[in-house]
């Protein structure tokens, strides 16, 4: 099955350009499946990341869809943009500050063969929201009011948790795969935002999540091989 990989980038420093290029390089070097790459550039093309990624796609003969947003629309909106153009039957959501290791994908696709697993994510060196994969039909099933990811969680935090909670409400689980190896340089992109702003956004989106799902909402996770 064809894989669509969605990656938002916001490379406002040279280090973040390097993170994004390293992630894409690791994706191409460690993924054998047919895929397309969908990049949402939330820095309006004002850095070198898009050019780096275009060269890597050309080198590895990977189809690229590049969406340039003049303003930073936030993570969930970027994911919605990507899902709106994705052509794959399987759709992966990846942070740009990851390194994907050999055979990262087969354990995830194996987990998705089960009808009771909505999404699959690596277990270990990354959190589930930084790298997860689902079937197109699952994203469509969980769509709300025309959106895959709820805009109330803009610009970041809790978007994927809301999606996982909606899956849980339908009796589905998120599979955490022990054999899928991914390293996440946690918060490399959000750390360029002030701590005060991050705390304010976290408090607001946490309240929105609790109001929507109730405090203490438990996500149905299942560890799989």
Summarize this structure as a short list of keywords or feature phrases.
single chain, 225 residues, alpha/beta, Spore Coat Polysaccharide Biosynthesis Protein SpsA, Chain A, eight-stranded mixed β-sheet, two-stranded antiparallel sheet, 7 helices, 22% strand, globular
Structural class: alpha/beta
Shape: globular
CA-based gyration radius: 16 Å
In which order are the strands of the major sheet placed?
Answer: 3-2-1-4-7-6-8-10
Largest sheet: 8 strands, mixed
Which stretches are poorly predicted, pLDDT < 50 over at least 5 residues?
A: none
Provide the CATH top-level class.
Answer: Alpha Beta
Furnish the topology, listing elements before pairings.
Blueprint: E1 3-9, H1 14-29, E2 35-41, H2 49-60, E3 64-68, H3 75-85, E4 90-94, E5 98-100, H4 106-112, E6 117-122, E7 131-135, H5 136-141, H6 159-169, E8 173-177, E9 182-184, H7 195-213, E10 221-224
Parallel strand pairs: 1-2, 1-4, 2-3, 6-8, 8-10
Antiparallel strand pairs: 4-7, 5-9, 6-7
Helix pairs in contact: 1-2
